Each structure stands twice: as structure tokens, then as C-alpha cells.
Write the C-alpha cells for this entry.
Amino acid sequence: MGCGPNRVGRIKHVRCVLIYNPVAGIARNGRQEQLRQVKEVLLSAGHEVEIAATTGADSASEQAREAVRSGADVVFACGGDGTVHQVIQGLITDTGEPTAILGVIPLGSANALAKHLRLSVDPAKAALEQINGSPRMIPAGQLLFGEQSRYFVVMAGAGPDGALVYRVLRGGKERFGRFAYYLHAAILFATQRFRTFKIEYVEEDSGKAFSQEAVSAMAVRVDDLGGLFSRLTSRQASVEQTDLQLHILRPPALLSLPCWFLSGWLGLNKLNPFLKTVSVTSFGCVACSEPAPHFQADGEWVGGIPMRVSMVPNALRILVPSEAGGKQR
């Protein structure tokens, strides 16, 4: 390896593993050619490259772990934010610093993390930008629910976004890509009554704990979710921050949800009486009634609340392009 765990420096000769889902997305027919181009540019730069197709819905996590065990230096998640989410489960460890580095090849419908890192939309160029950049140690969010734990880098939330991801999961995304989110969102918000739940959080600045009723709680770690959702959240969020930008909508959902979209697109979120945005170190959600609201992480459905969210410092090493790495967020 050309760099130690916390050292910022150019990557030298490394072994790269490209993990991708062969059946994901609407542009899957051209994916083999895109991956071939990525492999060629990395080989030309003097690196070893292996391409690994996922073998099941959740196999990317175990394949990432196996790549680390077999000596991979860089594991590229080739896909959207869902693929990134699966891969990081295999890179983040509960004990000690991570050894392998995460790279991102944007092949998904949203690619919020790739956009946040200012990566090229061209897969081969994105690979070169990162391999010629430097590794950066960043914190990660952690979800605790029941006896399980999952990590996230982009966002996590309970309420309408969880319900939307659950609905999309049941059909449409593979055929229609990001349009499926818009279609299902319109149907969902027009027909479903979102239940109130209780949220408890610790404010970063004061360290004080607060509790209130909510119909939506969304914790964001990037400055733009993209598409129709791009103006709903704070532009101050960053994957390098140790806090979460938490957006809380109070009931009733019939008023607060359309008001959120309207105030967001008009740039008037600060005047929205239903919306509260606060920097937090942790928060938790508990159902007030059944059925419990859904929750999601990085656009992947995880389950129903209760859930607990906190931050894990120095959890993930990620490749940052030189220009993006030099920007102050």
C-alpha cells in the first residue's frame, strides 16, 4: 500500500476489486463494457484488478469481506448508493481501523455519494480521479435495531422515506430507475396516511436531549440528494462531519409533507413551521402505534422502528479525488 490508515497521499500499486450487481439498474446491458473500461484504466495505471459480480441480494457485503481477507487494498462499489451501502457493511469493522479503502464507480440511478465527492459521471474517469487522489478516514452512521446493526454513509430515516423505499423495493426500480421513486412517491403521498412516532435526539451544540412527535425523521450526510429531493435538505452536510443533519417534520403529515416540498423548492425551509433541522450526535425513533413506520438507510429498506442512530468515528477509509479533497466543506 502507498498510504497508512490516516495518511493523505497518492495511491501507489494496489490490488483493486470491483464489486457490481449484474441485474441492477435500467442500463445493465452496457455495464460489462463500462466495467471493462474501468479495468483497463486501472491496469494501465499499474494496479491489479479483479471484477466480482454479486451472487444474491445481499452478497456484496460478504464479497467485500472476502476481498479484504484475500488482500484487496481498494474495493470499488460499482453501482448506486444501494451497492455502496452493501459494500461498506463488509469494510467497516467493530474493532480497529479499516484496512481496505472504499472506491465508488457511479453506475446507479441516484449516485448521491458520488455526486457529493464530485466524481465524474463517466465510470472510467471516476476510477482515475479516485486512484490518483488520496484515501480519507471518515466517520459512518450506525443503525441499531433489535439485535442487528447496519452502517450508512449517505442518509437514514424513518417515515415517508422509509415507506417509499419499501414500496419501490416491491417493484419498479429495476425497470424504471429513478423515475420509479417519483412515481411511487406521488402515489404514496397521495394515498397513504403516515403515522406519528416519537423521536428523541441529542443536540450537538448543547449536548441536551430533546423529545417530540414526528411524521418524518431524515438524517443526511451529503449536501444534495439529487433530483426532486435535492432541495429538501441542508447544503451543510458532509460525510467528513462527525454529526448528522437531522430533518424532523411534525404532524400532521397531510400538511407538513407538501409544505416541506414547497418550502424546499422555494428556498424557504427556515420559514417552514413544520420543519426543524438540527445537528445531532444521535437519535432514536419509537412507534406510537402499529403498524410501525418503515425506516431506510442509503436508500435501502431496513425494517420498522424502533431504531437507534449514532456516529462511529474513523469507521471507513474512502478514496477522495484530489480536487474534492482540497475543498473545505
Q: What stands out?
A: The two ends are 28 Å apart (CA to CA).
